[in-house]
Write a structure and sequence with these properties.
Blueprint: E1 10-17, E2 22-29, E3 44-46, E4 56-64, E5 79-84, E6 99-104, E7 112-121, H1 128-149, H2 167-173
Parallel strand pairs: 1-7
Antiparallel strand pairs: 1-2, 3-4, 4-7, 5-6
Length: 174
């Protein structure tokens, strides 16, 4: 009789990296978008939600399906009409100017279409592979030098160790 159409959450997530001055756009839909529902502006989430594992991302803002921006000091996922004097959604031209603006709350709901995020923490870069290669090359070079300094044709004779005394002391007493 009546057809129920489920409105699946669909977000366009813009992740900006302040260090690299680059941004990446990721579209999340359906089950991949569910971890963002109910999150608030200012929260830090794991980057694996948007396919950037190893990073920590902070939710900075967003806008709803009609283009109204999210504002951190409006609580809940509602759209309200409030008088504002500065901040997100209104930039006054004169000192003391106020205006009534329609803005969205600070909670991500299914009505939100764009979410802005910022990279807060990056994975630590491992510089060990370069050092390991260099160390292996130094060890290989040292082994070649040792091989060249050994006498050829004669066997190297080691003095037997006896009861904790050094081999020099045993050589002197004999």
């Amino acid at each position: 009789m009546g057809e129920y159409i489920s409105s699946m959450a669909k977000f366009k997530v813009i992740v900006s990296d302040p260090e690299g001055s680059k941004s990446k756009v990721v579209e999340l839909e359906g089950a991949r978008a569910v971890p963002l529902l109910g999150r608030k502006l200012g929260e830090t989430i794991d980057g694996s939600v948007v396919g950037m594992s190893g990073r920590k991302l902070q939710i900075r803002g967003g806008s709803d399906k009609d283009g109204f921006p999210m504002r951190p000091n409006i609580h809940g996922g509602v759209r309200v009409s409030v008088i504002v004097s500065k901040g997100v959604g209104f930039h006054p031209h004169r000192e003391g100017e106020r205006q009534r603006k329609t803005l969205r709350g600070n909670v991500i709901t299914e009505d939100i279409v764009q979410v802005n995020m910022k990279v807060v923490e990056k994975p630590k870069k491992a510089e060990r592979p370069k050092r390991v290669k260099k160390a292996k090359a130094e060890v290989a070079g040292a082994e070649k030098k040792e091989a060249q300094t050994e006498p050829r044709g004669e066997e190297a004779v080691e003095a037997p160790e006896s009861g904790g005394e050094s081999s020099e002391k045993t050589a002197q007493t004999t």
